[in-house]
């Protein structure tokens, strides 16, 4: 099973404004994300991302959704699992469901999964904006990683996508 982080960020590495607003993400990036997600049908997010996508009316995605939170939340959907059991256990739900690709997302989630060496690939879309008060693509815990660039393409006139493999 392949674990992917797919993020759209500002040119200086922010994935959302401090209040969670992601309106800086342009259409091509958004469409590409939906395409990849609809193929994977496997969405693993932190509670921060869950709350934001729920408020935007985009949650849950089709397929299996797992939300990591330490707060007890009862699921009102058949395809959503809330868990406080940590990243490895969260991935197990997808393995057991036979998923081939899992999309992990959220500033703190990204750091947590990278730090534990659980991520195989990164897709990073660079949006034509800069702001300096917001949520970083890797937030919270420190880690280091070596990457191999496996692709770079223009998503639109103003947006680039970088595709990396995480080297072990
Ligand atoms: N631009 C993009 O492509 C993109 C993609 C995804 C998300 N986003 C944005 O990123 C923002 C959210 O990022 P974020 O860093 O604030 O939040 P996040 O990473 O989505 O979630 C963090 C939360 O996950 C829970 N958590 C963390 N570690 C855990 C563990 N070991 N076990 C169980 N639960 C754990 C905690 O929730 P509790 O406090 O409930 O315990 C924590 O507050 C949103 O605004 C979203 O829109 C942007």
Description:
By secondary structure, the chain is α/β, with parallel strands linked by helices. It has one domain (about 1-145): Dihydrofolate Reductase, subunit A, CATH 3.40.430.10. Helix content is about 25%, strand content about 35%. It has four helices and ten strands; from the N terminus they run ββαβαββαβαββββ. The protein has an eight-stranded mixed beta sheet, with helices on both faces. Strands 2-8 form a two-stranded antiparallel sheet. NADP nicotinamide-adenine-dinucleotide phosphate (NAP) binds near residues 48, 69 and 70.
Keywords, separated by commas or semicolons:
globular, 168 residues, alpha/beta, Dihydrofolate Reductase, subunit A, binds NADP nicotinamide-adenine-dinucleotide phosphate, two-stranded antiparallel ribbon
Quick overview:
The chain is α/β, with parallel strands linked by helices and 168 residues long.
Please write out the topology.
Blueprint: E1 2-9, E2 14-17, H1 27-40, E3 42-46, H2 47-55, E4 64-68, E5 80-83, H3 87-96, E6 101-105, H4 107-115, E7 121-126, E8 134-136, E9 146-156, E10 159-167
Parallel strand pairs: 1-6, 1-7, 3-4, 3-6, 4-5
Antiparallel strand pairs: 2-8, 7-10, 9-10
The protein binds NADP nicotinamide-adenine-dinucleotide phosphate.
CATH fold assignment: Dihydrofolate Reductase, subunit A
Number of helices: 4
Please estimate the helix content. Answer: 25-40%
Rg computed from alpha carbons, rounded to a whole number of angstroms: 15 Å
Summarize the helix and strand pattern as letters. Answer: EEHEHEEHEHEEEE
Q: State mean pLDDT (0 to 100 scale).
A: 97
End-to-end distance, in Å? 16 Å
CATH superfamily: Dihydrofolate Reductase, subunit A
Main sheet specs: 8 strands, mixed
CATH domain class name: Alpha Beta
Low-confidence stretches: none
**How would you sum up the global shape?**
globular
Q: Proportion of β residues?
A: 35-45%
Q: What is the architecture at the second tier of CATH? A: 3-Layer(aba) Sandwich
Q: Going across the major beta sheet, what is the strand order?
A: 5-4-3-6-1-7-10-9
